């Protein structure tokens, strides 16, 4: 879980602290989706089976 939080937070911190851009819901949702995809890829989880 800690790794997932780091994966979500890293792009948000970069955008806020390095570029000075604002963070809205769309940016946060995109970061969470990318982190979720990365975790699924690392664990080999392909999602629900049909």
Defining traits:
72% helix; 50 residues; mainly alpha
Structure characterization notes:
The protein has 50 residues and is an all-alpha fold. It is built from 2 helices and no strands. It starts with a helix and ends in a 7-residue tail after the last helix.
Uncertain parts: none
The helix-and-strand class reads mainly alpha
Gap between N and C termini: 27 Å
Shape estimate: elongated
Helicity level: over 70%
Order of helical and strand elements: HH
State mean pLDDT (0 to 100 scale): 77
Radius of gyration: 13 Å
Q: Number of helical runs? A: 2
The largest sheet is:
none
DSSP strand (E) fraction? Answer: under 5%
List the helices and strands and how they pair.
Layout: H1 2-18, H2 25-43
Summarize this structure briefly.
With 50 residues, this protein is mostly helical.
């Amino acid at each position: 879980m800690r790794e997932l939080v780091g994966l979500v937070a890293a792009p948000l911190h970069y955008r806020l602290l390095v570029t000075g851009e604002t963070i809205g819901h769309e940016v946060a949702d995109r970061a969470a989706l990318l982190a979720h995809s990365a975790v699924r890829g690392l664990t080999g989880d392909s999602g629900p089976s049909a």
